[in-house]
Design goal:
about 110 residues; alpha/beta; Nucleotidyltransferase, domain 5; five-stranded mixed β-sheet; 3 helices; about 25% strand
């Protein structure tokens, strides 16, 4: 299973095998990006997710030694969180599910 998280200011993806072992866990943090503002700026966060989502997914798959064809389901965070940020993860998850005919686990 591929798991995707983009609810606030970190873009993350993990690959979990059938025995529930975590094969990879990749996180792209936005801490430095938001530091000058004293907190998370929602628009900046969602734009950073757009830049980070594909590299994070690619690295998670590579580190786990699998391809999208090996993925049997995709889990994604749908709440709580920043709407724009959540949409990035959800859109990526839905695209993978549609392209590879696997179930979406919200």
């Amino acid at each position: 299973m591929l798991a995707i998280e983009s609810s606030c200011d970190e873009t993350a993806a993990a690959v979990i095998d059938r025995s529930l072992a975590i094969r990879s866990n990749i996180v792209a943090s936005q801490v430095e990006l938001h530091a000058e503002f004293g907190g998370v700026v929602p628009e900046i966060a969602s734009r950073a997710h757009l830049s980070n989502i594909l590299p994070v997914l690619e690295r998670a798959l590579a580190e786990a030694g699998v391809t999208l064809q090996d993925i049997t389901a995709v889990a994604v965070v749908t709440q709580p969180g920043l709407v724009g940020s959540l949409l990035v993860g959800l859109t990526a998850a839905k695209a993978i599910c549609l392209a590879h005919d696997v179930p979406l686990v919200p």
